[in-house]
Amino acid sequence: MPNQTDQPFVCQRCGACCRWPGIVRLREQEIAPIANFLGMTEEAFIETYTRLAHNRQSLICGEREDGACIFLTPDNLCRIHPVKPMQCRTFPGEWDVPPEYRKLCKARQSQADLGTNANTPNVIHVLGHPMLPLDCAAHSADAQVFNCHNFCVLLEYLHIPYVYYGIKGSQLPGPVGDFMDIGRPTGTWRYGNRWHITYNQRLSRRLESNLGPEGKPELIASLYGAAQSDIDPQGLPVFEPMVGYDHCWTSYRVFPSYAHQHAIYAIMPERTRDDRFFDTVIPHFIEPEHYGLAEPPKEDYLLYLGRDVPAKGIGLARHCAEDTGLRLVTAHSGWHGKAKAKLIGQARAVLMPTLYVEPFGYVAIEAQMCGTPVITTDWGAFVETVEHGVTGFRCRTAAEFAAAVRMAPKLNRTAIRDAAIKRFSVAAVAKQYASYFQFIWNVHKNGGYYSRDAFRDTTFPWLSEQP
């Protein structure tokens, strides 16, 4: 198993490494994916964005006049992040960074401030979707596939080695993780049925074969709740990140909102009473590079993006559109990547009048990441994710929904996106997760509630001197 004892590297997106003197070499197999991502032919990409190395044996990414990478955007994001070259993906692990440049990297400074922590996971075993392969393009409407993908993105971002245990055909988002194939489903999953039993037996065997050195910090992440509750964890702590369903089974849970945490505590009081002390709340997150700030809308329409079910409030969305005289675009499935971002970005507002207590609602932060106001009901996670009158509006009557639609164009789209990046980007939540991983191992090994230095979030100044 890979070994990692230092603090995770958490990129702060300062852009320093994209401005350092030097070159980024492109491997031959990287040209086609980048060109395709940019919507260009390979020939046009090479002519526009690369130059020939001095030895005439490789291509180099171009630079701007100030020496920065040609793909660095004004807000320090990588324009081709999902398909960026391996040289960039392996920073800083395989780079020999000069000391003078290390001082410019905010993430390196952060590592120095945090120091080394023996509780940092050596590896995280990620138990994925029990029915579908990890492929967001093929299963864009499945929120749990998206959760599995995003959690792996987080681990890639933190440079924490992980093993993803998933259905045949799964595609990991980067080079940090390893894939453990558990085969294909033998039927539809339901708790206690034949596939549930077979699935947990396969997981247990694969886990046992992948354990690292005894005593080294290892964690198990259960991303599908009860489907994985009968595994043999081999004495390792199991936690549930990104809990968005209505049940749970582990002693360590990450809820995406306090609203959902409280709902679960009310639904499952006996199951959650004794270990509530070890839970935490960290919001869901997305990659800003996939949701750029759109140009001012050329069409005036409202967007409903979600399942076609009454509980999602689609009836209220239709009534609101009729009330305001605007066209309502409804999108239920099949939207992914650039097409989805464009659909969101060109809308006057995104309507999310969910009738139940929403655990989180990815669409709300996707809209904000595009700079598009989101108009929601005024309960559940929306109270935590939508800043009323700033990033959107929270409503309780038809009059309020109609007024919100009229006011939406007055909101500052750049400010909406900036707020979303600050709160819901991978960079915004990465340190919280890194701290929580260390917290789990500390609590597991060192006395539970009375564990020494058991702090869920070391980004908060718990240990600073009091005035």
Task: Provide key terms for this protein.
467 residues; alpha/beta; Rossmann fold; five-stranded parallel sheet; 16 helices; disordered N terminus
Notes on the structure:
The structure is a single chain. The strands form 3 sheets. The protein has a 7-stranded parallel β-sheet with strand order 6-5-4-7-8-9-10, with helices on both faces. Strand 2 and strand 3 form a beta hairpin. It is α/β, with parallel strands linked by helices. It folds into 3 domains: 25-114, no CATH class; 123-281, Rossmann fold; 293-424, Rossmann fold (3-Layer(aba) Sandwich). It has 16 helices and 15 strands.
Topology, element by element:
Elements: E1 25-26, H1 28-37, H2 42-49, E2 50-52, E3 59-61, H3 86-89, H4 99-102, H5 106-114, E4 123-127, H6 143-158, E5 162-166, E6 177-181, H7 194-209, E7 218-222, E8 238-240, E9 252-255, H8 258-267, H9 269-272, E10 280-281, E11 301-305, H10 314-324, E12 327-331, H11 337-345, E13 349-352, H12 362-369, E14 374-377, H13 382-385, E15 392-395, H14 398-407, H15 413-424, H16 426-445
